[in-house]
Amino acid sequence: MLTSKQRAYLRGIASTYETIYQVGKGGVTEAMCKDIAEALRKRELIKLKVLDNSGWTAREAAEAVAEQTESEVVQVIGNKFVLFKRNEKEPVIENIPKAK
């Protein structure tokens, strides 16, 4: 579970990131979640977008993808959301504030 300080730190980093995945008409699929899990392993922090024709809200899609990829939702704004999953073996993002 992320603390508010950790979430704020990660939101700041994610603000410069480009969207790398889109949830479209097909919704959240198992194959898509496998790709997202692989991206999370390499990057730790990714930004995704929910298209208008998907029938999903950004919050619904974020929670569904986070559950399937065992990651955490950092933020949901409009039709975009950010996910984070720590890679313990090869951390990419340094200086994340420690949880108390």
* Global geometry: globular
- Computed over alpha carbons, the radius of gyration is 13 Å
Give the total of beta strands: 4
Count of helical regions: 3
Identify low-pLDDT runs.
none
How much is the average pLDDT?
A: 94
Largest beta sheet: strand ordering: 1-2-4-3
The portion of residues forming beta strands comes to 15-25%
* SS content category: alpha+beta
Could you please describe the fold and organization of this structure?
The N and C termini lie close together (12 Å). The protein has 3 helices and 4 strands. It is α+β, with helices and mostly antiparallel strands.
Question: What is this structure's SSE topology?
Answer:
Layout lengths: L3 H11 L4 E5 L6 H14 L1 E6 L7 H12 L2 E6 L2 E5 L16
Write out key terms for the chains shown.
100 residues; alpha+beta; 3 helices; 4 strands; 22% strand
Could you give a short description of this structure?
With 100 residues, this protein is α+β, with helices and mostly antiparallel strands. The protein is built from three helices and four strands; from the N terminus they run H-E-H-E-H-E-E. The protein has a four-stranded mixed β-sheet with strand order 1-2-4-3, with helices on both faces.
